[in-house]
Amino acid sequence: MKSSDITMSILLMTFCLPVLANTQEHTSPTKPSLVLQITVDGLRGDLLERYKHNFAKSGFRYLMDQGTHYTNAHYEHGNTETIVGHVSLATGAPPSVHGMVGNIWYDRQKERLVYNVEDDSYSMLTIGAGVNQSTEVDPTQKAAQKDGRSPVPILSTTFSDELRLSNNGQSKAFSVSIKDRGAISLGGHAGKAFWFSKSKADFVTSNYYYDEYPQWVTEWNDSNIPAQYSGKRWEMSLPREQYTLQEISDEHKVDLAGFNRSFPHPYGPESYPYFPTMLTLSPAGDEITANFATTLLKEEKLGLGQHTDYLSVSLSSNDYVVHMYGSNSLETEDNLIRLDNTITTLLETVDQQVGLENTVIVLSADHGVPESTPVANQLGLKNAQYFNKNALVSEVLLKKLKHEFGLDDSAILLYAQPYLYLNHEMIKGKGVSLGEVQRVVADEIAQIKGVAAAVTSEDIKNGRVQNSRVTTLVENNYHPTRSGDVYIVFEPRSYINDMDGITIASTHGSPWRYDTHVPIIFAGYDIKAQTISREVTPYDIAPTLSNKLGITLPSGATGTTLKEVTQP
Ligand SMILES: [Zn+2]
Q1: How far is the CA of 393 from the centre of ligand 1 (A)?
Q2: 506 CA to middle of ligand 1, Å?
Q3: DSSP assignment string, 61-83
Q4: Which of 551, 421, 543 is nearest to 91 (CA)?
Q5: Residue 17 has pLDDT above 50, yes or no
Q6: Beta strands of 208-318 (E only): which ranges?
Q7: By percentage, how much of the chain surpasses pLDDT 90?
Q8: Rounded to the nearest whole angstrom, what is the distance from the C-alpha of residue 317 to the centroid of ligand 1?
Q9: Ligand 1 midpoint to CA 472 (Å)
Q10: Does the bond joining 214 to the residue before it have cis omega, within 30 degrees of 0?
């Protein structure tokens, strides 16, 4: 790293040129050249520490050992899903403010489910790069009815927006991820976002951002980096006995389309329709993302101008691997070992081009994860269970709605995590109180085994919710036009196990501690090596970055500034 070189040059300058008046200006830049925001999708706050001993020195351990590491950071919203966390990282705000209440929600004006960053005002720059309904395994992606994507649905500015606004767009801001929502969120409204199309095995964008691809993007796609994995297999990188956990069960692990439940996992030939999906379910997804991101860094000359630039890299593989194999699997540890190598390469590239001492690095995650349910059960957590979605609306409930309000079955529109949506037109037409209908529905659902709480939107609106940590998180998720009528909280480790018909190893999205817990590490530019255990929230990241750079906070930010970072 360059910090020792800098220290040496300070010493030399101090001893050789004691009269040089502007030493300060040459040795300690007054502002960072680059902000590098790394997000590891689904990385629970304790997992880096758990797997640390198998990491090399210059990746995760550089950040953990040389940076300011917050070990007790928790989201303060209930629906710990990917878009919600990513946008909170970007805006410093809860979903009640930034509006992204879930990966999907029911749009009452369009009268259909919408995907979070779906926008029919725009289209993909590459024809056919949208969701392939026949091979897509992510049910939330499948809910999108249009190929167009944009950050317009995000209702607050982001740190990257404010950085661009602070100097009339002279700072450059870019964001990259396998997932469209992982890229669009952090790129904000004024930055540029690229994501991976599983239909094309290319990095793509929409015409919100560009009218045509920059030349380097076309060249990167033409070089067909993903094809390098054709016919190869994801193998264990260490002898089995060196892994931290030995698996006590693998019955819950998923064999998706021939990718196998256990090592080795064959990617298959490039021509296989699921080949790009296999890449995303393994370390290859992050390797490809980082390859694209380092090309972007060089081609767009980030960190080399007069103004601070911004690069967000959201690494999605951990999330998919945890969904398929569980957070306590060999696959999850191996993926993190390989991600450690990927992050090492990313940091080395930034160090060569910009210098880590000139870069504010911040690493966090969009949500945590539980251990897989069958493993938890084997260890004695008897309440762990999968929840049958069909059990939410019982015959008893339907009868009550009929008897008490004259409402038929279509009064209940649908369930889209975490909300049950009711038919407002019908309820209005009957002249009955929405609040009373919600109350009956919530009381009935709250009695179902596996449900911990059911909170109505009318109670939130009118300040009638009993105060607890979980209900506060539910309230922070409430947006008046996007949230549904009843927020359903399942008991710890109980969830609807349905990823497009596949029974998956685990899923997140609850307000419980395992899902809200993420790491926050700041490193690089004048940041101290220290471990902080007081409870903080990822909402603090964007305000901290803003204050570090002396710019305005994102419009909706509610987080506070982390003083250990701004006053090192
Ligand atoms: Zn996620």
Answers
A1: 28
A2: 12
A3: HHHHHHSEEEEEEE--SS---HH
A4: 543
A5: no
A6: 233-234, 265-266, 309-315
A7: 82
A8: 10
A9: 22
A10: no
Give residue 9's pLDDT band: very low, low, confident or very high (50, 70, 90). Answer: very low
CA 504 to ligand 1 center in whole angstroms: 15
Phi (first) and psi of residue 49, to 5 degrees: -65, -40
Q: How far is the CA of 86 from the centre of ligand 1 (A)?
A: 8
Ligand 1 centroid from CA 385, angstroms: 21
Tokens of 218: 């076309």
Reported as a single tens digit per residue, the pLDDT across 366-390 is: 999 998 888 888 899 876 678 888 9
Residue 436 has pLDDT above 90, yes or no: yes
What is the whole-number distance in angstroms between the Cα of residue 318 and the centre of ligand 1? 9
Distance of alpha carbon 165 from alpha carbon 131, whole angstroms: 33
How far apart are the CA of 83 and the centre of ligand 1, in A? 7
Measured in Å, residue 511 CA sits from the centre of ligand 1 at 14
Measured in angstroms, how far is the CA atom of residue 131 from the centroid of ligand 1?
Answer: 18
Q: Distance between CA atoms of 228 and 287, rounded to whole angstroms?
A: 11
| Tokens of residue 225, six digits | 């980096």
Domain boundaries, the chain: 34-306+320-375+511-566, 385-491
The strand order across the sheet containing 486-490 reads 412-416, 419-422, 486-490, 451-456
Q: How many angstroms does the Cα of residue 81 sit away from the middle of ligand 1?
A: 6
Tell me which residue of 291, 314, 281, 345 sits closest to 40, measured CA to CA.
314
Right CATH number for 34-306+320-375+511-566 from 3.30.40.10, 3.30.465.10, 3.40.50.150, 3.40.720.10?
3.40.720.10
In CATH, what class is 385-491? alpha beta
Distance 222 CA to ligand 1 centre (A): 29
Q: What is the distance in A from the centroid of ligand 1 to the CA of 30? A: 35
Token pair of 95, please? 């979903």
Torsion, Cα 323 346 181 537, to 10 degrees, reads 80
End-to-end alpha carbon distance in the chain: 20
